[in-house]
Amino acid sequence: MHREAKRSLTPTIYDVAREAGVSYSTVSRTLSGYEFVKPSTREKVLRAAEKLGYVPNHQARSLAGGRSHLIGVLVPGLNNSYIGEILRGIDEALAESEYNLLLYTTHRRQGKESHYAATIMNSGVDGLLLVVPLMATPYLDTLHERDFPCVVIDQSEETQKGAVVSGTNWQGAFEATEYLIGLGHCRIGFISGLAGLTSTTERLAGYSAALAQHGLALDERLIAEGSFLQEGGYTAAQQLLALPDRPTAIFAANDLSALGAMEAVREHGLRIPKDISLVGFDDIPQASLGYPKLTTVRQPLSEMGREAANILLEEIAHPEQPRRRVTLPTKLIIRDSCCPPAG
Amino acid sequence: MHREAKRSLTPTIYDVAREAGVSYSTVSRTLSGYEFVKPSTREKVLRAAEKLGYVPNHQARSLAGGRSHLIGVLVPGLNNSYIGEILRGIDEALAESEYNLLLYTTHRRQGKESHYAATIMNSGVDGLLLVVPLMATPYLDTLHERDFPCVVIDQSEETQKGAVVSGTNWQGAFEATEYLIGLGHCRIGFISGLAGLTSTTERLAGYSAALAQHGLALDERLIAEGSFLQEGGYTAAQQLLALPDRPTAIFAANDLSALGAMEAVREHGLRIPKDISLVGFDDIPQASLGYPKLTTVRQPLSEMGREAANILLEEIAHPEQPRRRVTLPTKLIIRDSCCPPAG
DNA sequence: CTGAAAGCGCTAACAA
DNA sequence: TTGTTAGCGCTTTCAG
User: Fold this and answer.
1) Contact across the interface for B102 and A107, Cβ inside 8 Å
2) Helices (H), chain A
3) Could you tell me which residues come within 8 angstroms of residue A308 by beta carbon, excluding any fewer than 6 positions away?
4) What distance in Å separates the CA atoms of residue B90 and residue B70, rounded to the nearest whole number?
């Protein structure tokens, strides 16, 4: 037996074992919820652990058991309440489990993605949650190659095999556009999102489909490229407003863009919704905070996070099961940024 | 020597050692930046590691070396871009180091704070960053007791010994109030923050001091209790607006409250700044996003995060050095939510 | 149901 | 400068 002096600050299972008068493997079993431990023994162990203020050492547990109880979450950045909401959902789900959350941001170590993926895998996380991964193919390839448990949130690369959680992008965009059409708008501008993301593609498709369904021609000039960021929305709106026959309504691919557009509209001396109607996507907290309150397609962001986390946990527990793909419903939230066109 | 078959998926230092034809401790030394390794040996090791795609195992490294390269960050929640900004700063600082970020949210395990603190310490983090910890005394006691490296952001308990990073709350509030007074306002309402937080106390003190300095009486009824949340600001503003001689300006202890107040003002059919001037605190992204753009006291949130992280890293590296207390300057950002009073 | 023994992958004295 | 030897604290067979 090793360890004899060395009364360290934090007690280990050895200490608990001595206190309880059992072997340390019994302590280990008890503490990790092994069922075949005699109740009276379990009692003794638990009491001893309690008395000593024992707290398990994750590193050791992980090293020996191969399970770290750590979930990695890869986000593009933190400067965005869209991400914040998703994270909140993830955190909620994880809080109910025994898992902790290791946060990674993409902006780090750009370029060597696949090595980064390897690093993450080896940082001991049991699974990985990828939030809107851009250029994710290198990650995902490495990840899938090793059957590493992971689920992607709000993005699905064409060739992707793994689990995905997202909202009904097409449907949401379709409804929003249809709503605008129903209000009487014929020239509806669209501010797209970041190229390469499925959310961008799908929302654009939904927009186009709604126009088509209602016999409205698709005018390429009414589609301005945004970036999912406020600034992109601002610039895109400028473009749209500079058009000779400018749109009477604008549908932005996300709220941040819509908010940016709102600013541009104001600077042009136009009023919302009087002169221009505006619809966003996401329903981030600021959508209902500003003035006028933004009509938008709500995406259940935190639920998406929670759902993704739960799927991941499930996948870790039962690796054999087929990967799930979940699409959560979006919902048009009508607030104050739309009305029938002036003419 | 153990390990002979067991060609696992990820190579270990043993594999690298074999590949490089050296002992595994040499590999360990090389990889952990020990300086007295013969250059040619280092070369061989590095090449072998590269070839095998070696990635260190954090758990093992931590268990053996006592350093996990993990920093815990304890935040009250994620639903707030104030937190988001601070996190961003922390993340930036950590990205430049070799540290990863383990995220904890306070809402978990409420009640048994000190046990929670113990858990965090044993979760293997090398240090802890506490963002506006409410009811932190139990945590901090446990933490300080064991000389656990930690720094608190934007809050300093009375009896606190550890490192703290915060903004110039008093000064910022003083300036904001003075600005309002300079504009000609005499009845200035104050929406306070959450009771028990130093930021709340200090900002209130700054507000009072400015009034006093300019010979304005402190009217208790002009001080409404908020919560640092939008809703609290809304309710507090309602109160203020219901006053027989309502204020011509309101200074809210943070932007979220100010935004809430803005909504209440609007609902009362009043205009900002025409009828009521409004000043916030923090300068979160939404402050400049909405309409009108909010005049506010900017707090260098992300810098505070970055600074705190750097101090923590420093403290981990040199535990002997005295704890630092850093106060970063705030700055009044004048935008569109204030003007001289109507009368 | 419980104890003994063997590592998980790596760091850190201690020699050589 | 490099190899050898012990563990870090815990999980997990394998025997009782």
Assistant:
1) no
2) 13-20, 24-31, 39-52, 58-65, 81-96, 113-122, 137-145, 169-182, 198-213, 230-242, 255-267, 301-317
3) A89, A90, A129, A151, A152, A153, A163, A165
4) 13
Residues in CB range of B188: below 8 A, 6 or more apart: B177, B180, B181, B207, B211, B216, B222, B247, B248, B249, B250, B251
Rounded Cα gap, residues A169 and A271, in angstroms:
28
Q: Are B88 and A68 a contacting pair at CB < 8 A?
A: no
Residue A189: strand pairing partners: A250
**How do residues B332-343 score in pLDDT, each as one tens digit?**
999 999 999 987
Mean pLDDT, residues B112-123: 70
Search chain B and give the residue with CA nearest A102: B102
Give yes or no for B57 touching A (CB within 8 A).
yes
H helical segments located in chain B: 13-20, 24-31, 39-52, 58-65, 81-96, 113-122, 137-145, 169-182, 198-213, 230-242, 255-267, 301-317
pLDDT reported for residue A2? 33
pLDDT at A202: 97
pLDDT in tens, B243-268: 999 999 999 999 999 999 999 999 99
Reported as a single tens digit per residue, the pLDDT across A244-297 is 999 999 999 999 999 999 999 999 999 999 999 999 999 999 999 888 999 999
Please state, rounded to an integer, the average pLDDT across all residues of chain A: 89
A70 membership: H or E segment, kind and range: strand A70-75
| pTM, two decimal places | 0.89
Helix (H), strand (E), coil (C) string for B160-217 = CCCEEEEECHHHHHHHHHHHHHHCCCCCEEEECCCCCCHHHHHHHHHHHHHHHHCCCC
- Please give the nucleotide, over all strands, whose C1' is closest to the CA of residue A66: C8
CA distance B284 to B82: 6
The predicted structure's pLDDT at residue B54 = 87
A88 → closest Cβ in B10, B79, B291: B79
- Percent of chain A exceeding pLDDT 90 equals 61
Nearest-CA distance B184 → chain A (Å) = 27
Domains for chain A: give ranges and CATH numbers: 2-56 (1.10.260.40), 70-166+301-327 (3.40.50.2300), 169-299 (3.40.50.2300)
Report the 10 Å Cβ neighbour count for B50.
10
- For residues A277 and A337, the answer to whether their CB atoms sit within 8 Å is yes
> A70: Cβ–Cβ under 8 A, 6 or more apart, which residues?
A58, A62, A99, A100, A101, A102, A123, A124, A125, A126, B102
β-bridge mates for residue B164, sequence order: B152, B325
Q: What pLDDT shows up at residue B7?
A: 38
